[in-house]
Sequence to fold (74 residues):
Amino acid sequence: MLSVFTQRQLDTLHMYADRVECVFRELLNRLFNVIEFGNLDIPPYEVGPVDQKTQNLIETLRIKLENLKPNATL
Fold:
């Protein structure tokens, strides 16, 4: 799905991911543990166009990130 975003949207997502790396890492660890123990199956994902709700969310993140001081939290 990342291949259908604009460069500006990708830049916004990368900035956001950099700021939430620890939380995201913990989420992935929990997810992998649940999958490993057979408590969750993830269905295949099919790539489609970016919906308006996702575009709006990324734009909101971009605006908030631009207005943050360098070490502020979201």
Observations:
- Residues 11 and 62 are 9 Å apart (CA to CA).
- Helices lie at 7-19, 21-36, 52-67.
- The chain has three helices and no strands.
- The two ends are 24 Å apart (CA to CA).
